[in-house]
Each structure stands twice: as structure tokens, then as C-alpha cells.
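Anyone else keep sequences and C-alpha cells together like this?

Example one:
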Amino acid sequence: MGFTNTNSKPKLKPARMITKEKVQEVKDKMADISSTVVSSQTVSAHPAEPSEQVDDADVIVPVCQSGSESPEMPESAPVEVKFSDRLLNDITVEDYCFLFETLFNACSDNREEAKRKAREESRRKQEESGIDVITPENALVKCTGFMNDILNGYNLYKKHESAIDKQQSKSKEIVNTQNETVKRLETVVGRIEDVQGVKAPKRPPFPSWACLAYLFWHWPMYGFAFLWQSKYFRRFCFLTAFFVMVLEFCIIVLLSYDNKDLHRDRAKYVTVRNWSLVEGDTATINKFDYVDFIYSDVKYRKNDIDALQETIRKKYDIMMEKKQKQQNQKRRK
């Protein structure tokens, strides 16, 4: 929706001034031409009188002035006209120009009238369908209403501005009076307590841990209790607890087997060490002592441990090669 454009296209102004004498001269010529055309018709459905011919001539040549609307032309049946040499000779070039200008202005007026009727029909349909049609008149009325409402609101504010200030000052005075009354009552209560020896119960101090308990205990428990009302949440909790219990059982079994293996290796180590000590194998005992020494501080003896592992690996490889050679020699024999 928007504002409808009511501006009409400017009419074509005549190229020359039109005087009453010129108009009367053209009327006379057109009357003669009309009488000639009517007399030359083969079939005429409605014979016309001379007075009617003059009237028709008046209708044929309308006078269009700037700023005035052209008269509506009556509808009539089509007339077959035979042009003669006299018809062409009696009308000058200026008459042709005058006729063309008049016809152009009449067509412009008809087009503008059709546009105006189309706009009115569209507006009427919109109004019938309930659509709010905004026209310059309606917009001006609405803007005037808005301005009046704003002006009324401003006047109302100005009218009650002093009353608002008075109410605010009065509220401040009431608050100050109440504060003074509270102070006086506290003074009176304190004197009564001193005389009678009775003290009013005081509010216990707010403990610092209560805030932590409220945040990290009460809220989580409230949320858990709220979720516990759902059967699906309860089933999920039960399944989670079951899987955790099974996982703990499996870990306990694995740790038991691993601890058993460690105890067996430790028993073997102690047995071999004691056996070497009983047999008097000093070299083996020294090796045990050296291993205990380097593994007593793994962080600082890492290089020694790596060197020992490398020496053991090389000697193991040499031993396996010798063993393989001996087996090959036995197979050859």
C-alpha cells in the first residue's frame, strides 16, 4: 500500500492562440462538410435536420482550454464517409493542426479519466476487502491525530509535573521520618534492656561454609532428586553402577594375577642369590649387588642400566650363534 499518485499528465497546449472568430470559422466549415457528407451517404439510418447538423458540428469541434476538462463525447453508430476533393480543399493546414491538437487533448483527457476511474475502482475494492487504504487525505488525518495525542500527552505531563515533584519530595520526607523513628525506638529498647537486664535475641551470624554447602551440596542434590523422578534416569543409574562394579571386579582379578607373578619372580631372585651365597660363588653375588645398586636409583643410573642391557643382549646373541653352530655340526655328523 502507498500513496496513490493523483498527478495527471500535462495536456498539450495549442501551438497558436485560439480566438472565438477562428472557432466560429471552423464550425461553419465543418457544418458545410457535414452537410456534404450526409447528402452523399448511400444509406442513412437516422436522417438529421439542419438544426441537428449544426449541433453535431458543435460537438465535433470542441474548444479545449488549458486547465479545463473536455466535454464527454456522446456515443453514436459508425458512419461511412466518402471523402471528396472539396472536403480536402476547404480545410487548410492550420485547420488540420487545430483538429489534431483538439483530438490529442481529448484523448489525453480520456486516458486520465480512465486512470482515475481505475484508481477509484481499485480503492473501492480494497475498502470492500477490509484493507486499510492510505490516501493523502487519510494520511493527513492520521498524522493530525498522532500530533494531537502527542500534544495532549505533553500537556498532561506539564500539568502533573509539579504534582509528581511534590509526591517525590513527600516520599523522601516520609522515608527520613521513618529512619528517625527507627533510631529512636532502638534507643528506647536499649535503655529498657539496660534497666531490666533483658537483651533481645540477636540474629546468629551467617556461617561462611553455608554458602559452599548451598552451592555444592543443596543444588546438586536438588537436581539429582528432580531427575530421579524419571524411570529412565533410574535405569540409567542402575546400568552405570552395574558396569562400574563389573569393571572393578575385572581390575581386581588382573591385579591379583600380576601380584602373583611379581611374588614368584621375587622368590626366584632371592633363591638364586641365597644359593650363590651358600655355594661361595663370589662373581654371581657381585653381579646381584651391582644390579641392586644401579636399580636403587633409576633416574640417575639410567645410562648404566642401558649399558648393562646392551651387554647382556650382545652376549645372548653370541651365545645363540654358538648354539646354532653346534646344532648344525651335529646335524652334519
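And example two:
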Amino acid sequence: MNSLTEIKTLVVTAFGLLTSMFSPIQDFMMAMLILLTVNLFFGIASAVARGEKWSWKKASMFFVFCGGLFFCFASMFAVGHFLHNDAEAALCVKYACFIAVWVFGTNILKNWRKMRRKGTTTYKFVDILLYVLTVQFVEKLPWVKKWQDEQSDSKDV
């Protein structure tokens, strides 16, 4: 066998090993990819609706966020996997996904609201959804409210 074939075999084997190791969180990874793609489309649509010019920097942030989230989730799961605690590691990834859904969901709603005219039915609908997600959701989770309060206090300084 030549060395190129051996390298190909090594890469395919390593890829297969990683995909089988991360198979318990593959649904979470796919959900985050869908969420970030929706966030990208709403961000682009909002910018176009407001007359902004195309920015590769803003568009490339999609890949940065995807890479960062996937690395973070994979790292959390890998640590739990190597500690022989896959169930709790998957639970940590699940909670991190909930936080990501909240953060990116509010961003999607903000971008959607920017595309609507004030006073329209759609604007009011999105505004209510955004209120529920940013205020009512936070009230149910005291640690998120505490974080949000700390963030608003640090901006006042």
C-alpha cells in the first residue's frame, strides 16, 4: 500500500471513531445547526430589510458560532465520556442547548421584529413572543435572571 492510501484510511477511521463517540449528542448538534442557520437567515433578511450592505464579516460569524458551539458541546461530552459518565455529559449538553436556544431564539425574534413595521399585527405578535422569551422565561430560571441583572449592572458602570 502506498502512503496516500494509508493516510486516507487513517482519516476515515478517525472520522468514524469520532462520529460513533459523539452519536449520543448528534441530535443536539443537528438542532444547533438548524438553529444557527435560521439565525443566519433572519440576520441576513433583517439587514436587507433595513438597507444594510452585505458584510462577509457578519456572514462569517455563522461559521464561528457553529464551530465554537460544536467544539464546546463536543468537549463537554468528551470529558464526560472519558470519565465514563455519558448520561450526565449528554444532560450537560442538553442544558447548554437550552441556553443556546434561548440566546439565539431571542436574536431571531429581535431580527424578525426589526423587519416588521410598528403597529402591524405581525410586529405585535413577535413583540409578545420576544417579551415572553426575554422576561417571562427568565423569571422561571433564577440563575438566568441573576446573570441578566449582573449584565445590566455592569453596563451602568
